[in-house]
């Protein structure tokens, strides 16, 4: 499942949340209805329900899309297995530009705030810097990792870039010169994602060792390690005010499969958990406050569901699947012919 790896800012309309997916290009409209049934361990059957007319785009990629990021309120950037970064206007469906330079799949994209520049990371162990208004060739090529690059984070002042990898290391780069200025390595720290805390010198990092770490970019020293979870931490996101972060877990059959809210201030304690997915939670994001009356968190998972949670209470507010209990409906299998 495509990770919701875009920083949704208040300037972006709420509809972008539903459109930042793997297909883009010429705009089409379509009415969808699916009778797919998903059996949960607790005996409840979940069934997709009829949706309103959705807007779709002719694919701009020829293979799986791994990541989407927002460059500004109109333009988004996607990357994937076809080794191409595509800049497109999500409002019109027009592809603006393609950037080709990586030798293997693009894994992460990070945009430089208030600019036309962005970075792409890849399984080819490199990070490339691109300029929407510049040459078709990358402005910089950053090489320093021994394995796939799995984390990218740009500092709030756009002067530094932090990269992470499955080689257990984090590297800190000077954006202006393209030079590596700091390096840190922790045994078994297979990085899965990085986020820079707004207005702070701190970087949040998730890992396959089930740990969330907080790094101080001043010397790239580890500032804090949050309590170890029971499953791999797949993704993290920091709130706009920098007070909290949310991480999400791998899992199966409802074991694990949760998102966790952490306090980044003095206590640095666990504040809330969001449980309801039944497979690995791939991504999590804070929704813009202007889009809801209460603070909300969205999660996407390998169970093909996106869920919206009340950030403070952990209550499930919205899901893209309707939940029907056996008492509410006769359980039907797809082979029965009754799933219309």
What would you say about this model in short?
With 340 residues, the protein is mainly β. It contains 1 helix and 31 strands. The longest helix is centred in the N-terminal third of the chain and has 4 residues, at 16-19.
Question: Describe it for me?
Answer:
WD repeats lie at residues 99-140, 142-183, 184-216, 274-319. This is WD repeat domain 31. Keywords: Repeat, WD repeat. With 340 residues, the chain is an all-beta fold. The protein folds into three domains: 1-24 and 59-143, Methylamine Dehydrogenase, Chain H (7 Propeller), CATH 2.130.10; 37-56 and 226-340, YVTN repeat-like/Quinoprotein amine dehydrogenase (Methylamine Dehydrogenase, Chain H), CATH 2.130.10.10; 153-225, Thrombin, subunit H (Beta Barrel). It has one helix and 31 strands. A four-stranded antiparallel beta sheet has the order 5-6-7-8, with no helix packed on it. Strands 9-10-11-12 form a four-stranded antiparallel beta sheet, with no helix packed on it. A hairpin with a 5-residue loop joins strand 2 (37-39) and strand 3 (45-47). The two termini are 26 Å apart. 39% of the residues are buried.
Compute the number of structural domains.
3
The number of helical runs is 1
The CATH architecture of the largest domain can be named as: 7 Propeller
Mean of the pLDDT scores?
Answer: 83
Pfam families: WD40
Keywords: Repeat, WD repeat
Protein name: WD repeat domain 31
WD repeats: 99-140, 142-183, 184-216, 274-319
């Amino acid at each position: 499942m495509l990770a919701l790896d875009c920083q949704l800012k208040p300037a972006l309309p709420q509809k972008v949340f539903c459109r930042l997916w793997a297909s883009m290009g010429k705009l089409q409209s379509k009415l969808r209805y699916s009778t797919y049934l998903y059996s949960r361990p607790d005996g409840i059957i979940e069934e997709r329900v009829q949706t309103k007319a959705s807007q779709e785009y002719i694919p701009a990629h020829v293979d799986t899309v791994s990541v989407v990021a927002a460059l500004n309120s109109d333009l988004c950037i996607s990357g994937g297995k076809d080794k191409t970064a595509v800049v497109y206007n999500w409002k019109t469906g027009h592809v603006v530009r393609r950037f080709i330079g990586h030798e293997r799949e693009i894994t992460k994209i990070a945009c430089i705030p208030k600019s036309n520049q962005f970075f792409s990371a890849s399984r080819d162990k490199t990070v490339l810097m691109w300029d929407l208004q510049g040459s078709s060739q990358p402005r910089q090529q950053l090489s320093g990792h021994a394995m796939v690059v799995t984390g990218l984070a740009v500092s709030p002042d756009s002067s530094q870039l932090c990269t992470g990898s499955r080689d257990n290391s984090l590297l800190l780069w000077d954006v202006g010169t393209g030079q590596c200025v700091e390096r840190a390595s922790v045994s078994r720290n297979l990085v899965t994602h990085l986020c820079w805390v707004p207005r702070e010198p701190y970087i949040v990092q998730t890992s396959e060792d089930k740990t969330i770490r907080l790094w101080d970019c001043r010397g790239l020293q580890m500032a804090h390690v949050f309590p170890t979870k029971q499953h791999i931490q797949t993704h993290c996101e920091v709130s706009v005010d920098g007070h909290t972060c949310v991480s999400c877990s791998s899992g199966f059959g409802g074991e694990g499969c949760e998102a966790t809210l952490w306090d980044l201030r003095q206590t640095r304690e666990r504040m809330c958990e969001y449980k309801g997915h039944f497979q690995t939670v791939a991504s999590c994001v804070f929704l813009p406050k202007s889009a809801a009356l209460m603070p909300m968190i969205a999660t996407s998972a390998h169970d093909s569901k996106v869920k919206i949670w009340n950030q403070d209470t952990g209550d499930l507010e919205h899901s893209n699947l309707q939940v029907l209990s056996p008492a509410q409906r006769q359980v039907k299998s797809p082979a029965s012919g009754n799933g219309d």
